[in-house]
Amino acid sequence: MNTKEYLYKSFLHAIGVAVYIILVVSLLSNAKYIFGEKDTVYIPVFMLLLLIISATITGSLVLGRPLLMYIDGQKKEAIMFLSATIAWLAVFLFLVCIIMVAVK
Known about the structure:
It is a single chain. The protein has helices at residues 3-29, 31-35, 42-71, 75-103. The chain is mainly alpha-helical. It has one domain. α1 packs antiparallel against α3, α1 (3-29) crosses α4 (75-103) and α3 (42-71) crosses α4. The protein starts with a helix and ends with a helix.
């Protein structure tokens, strides 16, 4: 893979993480309308399960391919891919911060 391909594929992985985050935030923001206002034991169970699933999905998107590349002996490429994915996520974080300041 060349540098452009690493940047493109890492961008897609970072977009996947961002889209997943947006979906979870949308679910949590509208939970009152979806599930009603209930105070039961199921809410903490739901939240813990959501945490575990979210960590698994985002961990797979960020670490999955670099780990496979590293195991296949492509150590430099794996580190480059992981670094590029993290860099894209940092760019997204920066953009969200700019949007939050602008909307304020």
